[in-house]
Amino acid sequence: MAASSVLALAAATVLMTTTTASARGGGGGSGFGGGGTRFGGGGGTRFGGGGGFFFLGGNGVGLLVLLALVVAYVLIRNWSQSRHDKRTSNTTTDRRAHRADGQAEERAAAVEAQVDVLADTDVSFDPGALRSRATQLYVTAQRAWTAGDLATLERILAPVVYGKWAEQLSGYAARGQSTVVEVLEGPDVQIVNVANRPGETEDTVTFRIVATLRDHVVDRRTGEVLTRKDRSTRPIEYWTLRKDGSGGWIVAGIEQAEDGHHHLTDALETDAWNQKSVGRDAVLEVAERTSPVRTADVLGLTNVSWADDADHAAADLSLVDARFDRSVLEVGIARFLEEWAMNDGSLDFTAVRTAHRTVMRTATVRSIAVRDLVSQDPVEFRVAVEADGIYYEVDRWTEAVVAGDPRTQRSLELLFTMRLDDASRGWTVTAVEGVG
């Protein structure tokens, strides 16, 4: 190859690298262009211009040495950039979460063994079909999000998740923006949690999902890219699927890496759920059998003042009407807390609308006390509940945690309004007034 051709090749190599760097980083100041840079320009540069050190005449030796140096520089620079890309391809939280990849593999193997057993009696738990469904839902959701396809999102997302996504898309539209999410690689899905509950629509399966994504926000009027993640990211998310009314799996909850880490250590809810359900049904059955003939003024069956000591009055009344027993109240509270957690951890599944989105992941009740009587017909109480659980609040727009800690259990004080329904259903939570 002629020396001039070799030099042209070296220049082309440098030029291509410059173009890529500019496209990624934008603007001037790159390592290969403009006055005073290392490899070009006028006098004073190290390798160019008159009297340059390596130009030794027409035999091309100097040019070959120059080419070797240029190639070495480019290779080292690309290697360094590749290492930088790997370090910056995820948020700090995701990089930390990837350290648990080994733990996730072990968890997935253990959970799939349980799921295989469930599939023997319920084909909807077939592991291969579940993984395929999770992959389909993930990809479909990203495409529908990018297209603003609310109809598709409403079909594949549970109401609470759909409401959250629709709200965020509406926010972008109000700003004259749209978002684009590209799935570049994956997703890789692992089954890491399962709950086989008595009610068909209460069954859940949780997946740890990893995919390489690229996303950006676009001004709808000008087409300008307003914000951009220049390098692909490889986030970890935990997607929980739940059966809809027809028995098909839909997305009931989405947790980011840090929020969903608990799925790698949670106890599997299979037989334990059946035992828990049987116990609760037994409590309600006893309450129904021992309830007296309905009277117009059931609250008057106690002589204790509801105004002075509602908790004492309820305990006294429970001696003649088991529906007011603390254990019956606890059934209603426990069911509500579980439903709260299963609905993406969000209180939005009720009529309660809080400034920030509330998230309840786990909660174990320590004690309850009837605070006061709200209504006599229907009978409604305010009940104070002390519990231990993971509770936090996130900004509805940014999803940033604004209160609490998604990985730490803490003491909770909740105040529920509860209504007495028929004995077979017990008490229903109708409002949550505060969480402390």
Characterize the biggest β-sheet. 5 strands, antiparallel
* Number of structural domains: 2
| CATH 2nd-level architecture of the largest domain | Roll
* CATH structural class of the largest domain: Alpha Beta
Q: Determine the N-to-C terminus distance.
A: 77 Å
Which strand-content bin applies to the residues?
25-35%
Describe this structure in words.
Pfam families: Tim44 (PF04280). Keywords: Membrane, Signal, Transmembrane, Transmembrane helix. The protein has eleven helices and ten strands. The radius of gyration is 31 Å and the shape is elongated. The N terminus is likely disordered. The chain is an alpha+beta fold. It has two domains: 178 residues, Roll (Nuclear Transport Factor 2, Chain: A); 163 residues, no CATH class. α6 packs antiparallel against α7.
Primary descriptors:
436 residues, alpha+beta, Nuclear Transport Factor 2, Chain: A, 2 domains, five-stranded antiparallel β-sheet, elongated, disordered N terminus, NTF2-like_dom_sf, signal, transmembrane, membrane
Summarize the structure.
The chain is α+β, with helices and mostly antiparallel strands. Helix content is 39%, strand content 26%.
